[in-house]
């Protein structure tokens, strides 16, 4: 400790030798060391938490990129894939209350480390079915398989098929039926994603509050911003990893790739979806290791040692109530020493219902909550099935689709969120301005989305489904149209999906339905000849040839896809600009002591009413646009092979726009209520940064009674900042 000059004069005037105060130097040295250890410890925690955020964002986005791969691999419809996608939110909700309340009382870093292990276990579990359900089987006629036996695609007589080949085919089907239980392996994917949700739960509430507790106050916001920035990078790498794995065949390393007769452009192609989950799981394990070596508590900064509450919290405790707050704090400490921490729960429980009533009595909060729920339904459904939409609408491969989303759309979203915050800071926008900016962002974003209706591709020309065998378009019953005079002499199945492309540019469901009599070559290089249904406009009766695989979409489709990308990027940016202003609006429109509780209710509502149901009913709606369903080996409907492009466009974009429009009406209602309650004096104060007014007529209303002040401190508010 320093000695005053007056004391120095007194000591020297008495001719006494001033001893060196080693304890003071020691205390100063220990204080500096403590400060360094504090800063070093929080920075290590910050780095570890950033890596965890990256890991969880990567695995979550990778799941989105593998939606179509999982659908084809397990032969399940889109609605069931939606249930799998929503299971993450269900797992998160199962323990969020327990983690939020009891998390701060335990070793937070180790709980986060345990969460990482659970998250990695769930990620590994998702990939496990690949190793237990056998090799992937796609539909191919025996003539396209590498074989010395030549079989006519059009089986006019079963005697044309050698007995050994026919018997071998029946044996394979029976073997497939014996392993039909493998089609239920998607349950492991659902359970793995559920486990991922459970493991991810403690990362955000406990990680952010740990930083908020032990970081220097002026640095806390910067640290949290760094974590959120790193989290945005995760989805970019997740979709790029999905793009890479989609190019690799599902059974890579288990089969001879030269024997594979389909390419990544085929509707039956399944990429190495499981490989990315193994990589993501390993990253999650590595991300959790540092947390097992971090302390339960870090030395608190000097600015926080003298107060039991943060400065933000202290702002909400008025001078008149500080003494009462202190006495209550002492009572609780005595109760904890006598009976543990069991009594801490009851004050919170008693104030729960009044707080809930107070919160739901705020019209701005309720209206904004409704607007957010509906808008998130729109956005979650749109993002979940965007890869499928691009693949089916524009004929793009899964690999290219994931690459485009990861490299173009995700950065646009990140830049939009950053721009929204920058606009708020640059122009010092108050709460009314934030509501206007959020509304304007949604309005123009969905207006741009409306233009995508004009940027679609026509249906692929598939004989018997979208066009007749004579090349004319129709809208009759599709199943009845699969057979025609040209293939009436063939023994064909309408359940097969082994598309070939005729030289007339029309796709045929199978070589048999195309009436092909002979073939040459094997595997991907197979060419079919004497196809009675493949005719040209110049000579419809002439028998022509066809090659393996579907025909490409029309010449205008690549151009439309380019337009779609441009509008999609601008739309993603525009909608994201309103994210930060909307969040500020939410925080400023509730009483200070209810902020954490309001955020918890908000997050809970979004997850229960948007995160879980949106992928399911979007999937059900998309399933209604299917033209050709695949069939399982032992009967039953499999995954969809071909969608009606026009119907898919109207259902996917229409459902997104309808929900978005409804949310805009609620946002307009929010703005209307704010205008009624917003006075010019409030606007001036808010612009000067002294106070944000929202739905309050006086400052005194923010501090209704001391019971709410007690609740602020002893509710686990920091742990419920979701």
Q: What is the strand and helix layout of this fold?
A:
Blueprint: H1 5-13, H2 22-65, H3 67-74, H4 78-102, H5 108-127, H6 163-178, H7 186-200, H8 203-214, H9 217-247, H10 273-288, H11 302-305, H12 311-315, H13 322-339, H14 345-360, H15 363-384, H16 386-394, H17 398-426, H18 431-450, E1 500-502, E2 507-508, E3 518-520, E4 527-531, E5 544-548, H19 557-577, H20 579-588, H21 595-611, H22 613-623, E6 626-631, E7 637-643, H23 645-677, H24 680-687, H25 706-714
Antiparallel strand pairs: 1-2, 1-5, 3-4, 4-5, 6-7
The gist of it:
InterPro entries: Kazal_dom, Kazal_dom_sf, MFS_dom, MFS_trans_sf, OATP. With 722 residues, the chain is mostly helical. The chain contains 25 helices and seven strands.
Q: Considering the protein shown, what is the CATH homologous superfamily of the largest domain?
A: MFS general substrate transporter like domains
CATH architecture of the largest domain: Up-down Bundle
Give the helix level as a range of percent.
Answer: 55-70%
Radius of gyration: 32 Å
Largest sheet: 5 strands, antiparallel
Tell me the number of helical segments per DSSP (H or I, 4 or more residues long).
25
| CATH class descriptor of the largest domain | Mainly Alpha
Helical/strand content category: mainly alpha
Give the N-to-C terminal Cα separation: 43 Å
- CATH-derived topology of the largest domain: Growth Hormone, Chain: A
Mean pLDDT across every amino acid position: 77
- Order of neighbouring strands in the sheet with most strands: 2-1-5-4-3
Shape: globular
Number of β-strand runs: 7
Q: Which consecutive residue ranges, at least 5 long each, have pLDDT under 50?
A: 1-38, 157-174, 307-328, 330-347, 683-693, 695-722
Membrane topology: Multi-pass membrane protein
Protein name: Solute carrier organic anion transporter family member
Family: Belongs to the organo anion transporter (TC 2.A.60) family.
GO molecular function: bile acid transmembrane transporter activity; sodium-independent organic anion transmembrane transporter activity
